[in-house]
């Protein structure tokens, strides 16, 4: 496993336009809603890069020859599992909290709902600015993630394991505490913060031909897409998701947001949620294709990264690796012989010990 050296970044080109959308959360910046076609522009991502730089790691881009052979291409793993709080989420959370502090006096508190990684990130980001954070979490969220939220100074408020219960719980805490709400994937500043991943990846390796991104609510892939397609218009962006949580695939097929019609049960707990209304236009228009993978493929890919790349990842990160070694990848839209250098985002490493044991033992 090797780290890719950083090259100088150049030729940003023209900014993407952005379209006004009705935002689903509060505390939205004027630049995010007034820019044009989408809820963010490349300018927002570039600004976010400099805002969050003192608070996050520039994570390495790593390679593994065994994974290259399996994929039949050169694979470059963006190791956000090594990021502060153990996932990419600290990027968007930090940008959102910093934006709140910049626009007005510090809010009384920050509120969000999360199954884990976003909650940890918001707790850490709020703590950096000395603001209390209340994280509404489903009762079945991994204990390691609940404990991590508390370790970063956040207050955990448990709720029933449904999206509706999470939303209602967050609304209640906002009313009671006078808090400012930050959505995990639909707040514009969060999306801009996540886009800094692509900003770094194409600085570290300008020769990337495609980037594969696990997709849940869509904040990460939409931010990455805005940044990457602006810096390098020819680049392909592929979403990866579990077959059991394939709302992004269904939505791309139908042309409108299409939630799954069954309870979502997947080992990749970070991508259980449905893509949101602010991420959707970017995904609809600019993401090249969606690759779905089975639970068995996710488990095998996660084990593969642990054993051969020597990186600790959570199963949600395994979704992207499973996609590139899947035969569907070669048949994805836009794939051809010149697409040789593939970036994959290892989005987090906060694996529950019980889940790790299950994957390693197969029990």
Describe it.
It contains 15 helices and eleven strands. The longest helix has 17 residues, at 188-204. It is globular, with a radius of gyration of 19 Å. Mean pLDDT is 88; it is low at 5-36. The strands form two sheets. A seven-stranded mixed beta sheet has the order 1-2-3-11-8-9-10, sandwiched between helices. Strands 6-5-4-7 form a four-stranded parallel beta sheet, with helices on both faces. The protein is of the alpha/beta class and 363 residues long.
What does this entry show, briefly?
The protein is built from 15 helices and eleven strands. It is of the alpha/beta class.
Which strand order do you get reading across the main beta sheet? 1-2-3-11-8-9-10
Main sheet: strands, sense, barrel: 7 strands, mixed
Please tell me the overall pLDDT. Answer: 88
Tell me the radius of gyration: 19 Å
H/E element sequence? EHHEHEHEHEHEHEHEHEHHEHHHEH
Number of strands: 11
Shape: globular
Which stretches are poorly predicted, pLDDT < 50 over at least 5 residues?
A: 5-36
Helical amount among residues, as a percent range?
Answer: 40-55%
How much of the sequence is in beta strands? 5-15%
């Amino acid at each position: 496993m090797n780290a890719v050296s950083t090259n100088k970044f150049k030729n940003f080109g023209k900014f993407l336009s952005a379209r006004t959308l009705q935002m689903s959360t509060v505390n939205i910046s004027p630049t995010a809603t007034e820019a044009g076609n989408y809820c963010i522009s490349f300018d927002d991502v570039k600004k976010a890069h400099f805002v969050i730089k003192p608070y996050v790691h520039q994570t390495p881009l790593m390679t593994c020859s065994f994974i290259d052979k399996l994929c039949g291409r050169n694979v470059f793993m963006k190791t956000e599992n090594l990021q502060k709080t153990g996932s990419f989420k600290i990027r968007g959370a930090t940008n959102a909290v910093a934006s709140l502090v910049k626009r007005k006096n510090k809010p009384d508190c920050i509120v969000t709902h999360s199954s884990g990684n976003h909650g940890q990130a918001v707790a850490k980001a709020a703590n950096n600015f000395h603001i209390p954070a209340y994280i509404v979490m489903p009762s079945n969220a991994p204990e390691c993630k609940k404990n991590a939220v508390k370790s970063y100074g956040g207050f955990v408020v448990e709720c029933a394991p449904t999206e509706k219960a999470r939303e209602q719980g967050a609304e209640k805490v906002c009313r009671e505490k006078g808090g400012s709400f930050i959505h995990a994937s639909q707040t514009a500043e969060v999306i801009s913060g996540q886009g800094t991943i692509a900003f770094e990846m194409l600085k570290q390796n300008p020769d990337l031909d495609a980037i594969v991104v696990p997709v849940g609510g869509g904040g990460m892939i939409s931010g990455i897409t805005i940044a990457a397609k602006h810096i390098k218009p020819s680049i392909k962006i592929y979403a990866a998701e579990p077959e059991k949580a394939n709302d992004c695939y269904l939505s791309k097929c139908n042309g409108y947001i299409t939630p799954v019609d069954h309870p979502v049960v997947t080992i990749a707990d970070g991508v259980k949620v449905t893509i949101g209304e602010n991420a959707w236009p970017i995904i609809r228009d600019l993401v090249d294709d969606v690759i779905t993978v089975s639970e068995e493929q996710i488990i095998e890919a996660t084990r593969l990264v642990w054993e051969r790349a020597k990186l600790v990842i959570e199963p949600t990160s395994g979704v992207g690796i499973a996609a590139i070694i899947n035969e569907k990848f070669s048949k994805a839209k836009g794939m051809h012989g010149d697409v040789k250098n593939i970036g994959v985002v290892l989005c987090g490493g906060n694996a529950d010990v019980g889940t790790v044991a299950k994957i390693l033992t197969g029990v």
